[in-house]
Known about the structure:
Strand content: under 5%
Distance between the termini: 29 Å
Radius of gyration: 19 Å
Amino acid sequence: xxxxxxxxxxxxxxxxxxxxxxxxxxxxxxxxxxxxxxxxxxxxxxxxxxxxxxxxxxxxxxxxxxxxxxxxxxxxxxxxxxxxxxxxxxxxxxxxxxxxxxxxxxxxxxxxxxxxxxxxxxx
Length: 123
């Protein structure tokens, strides 16, 4: 009979949830300059529990697109320093803005999913 009862999350699952959630918090709070490094940290968090791996994947997807758009913006700014780079810079900036707009709802979904995880694991 006991095997049919749910005992809640194990200590290792709660610890894993804490590590994933902490890495997401650090990434969210970081300046744009630090986001690429902290995205790498989130990618490096070991994940075994399927729902936590899903959370990690959702956040990596959204913040990955955001970090890519930031890098493209920096590249466009460097191109603007030369007269022949202005047209290419404008094209890249348009693309980066589109990427940022697409990343925003993914990042919002990441935050929502993280909230669910924090409540479930009582973080």
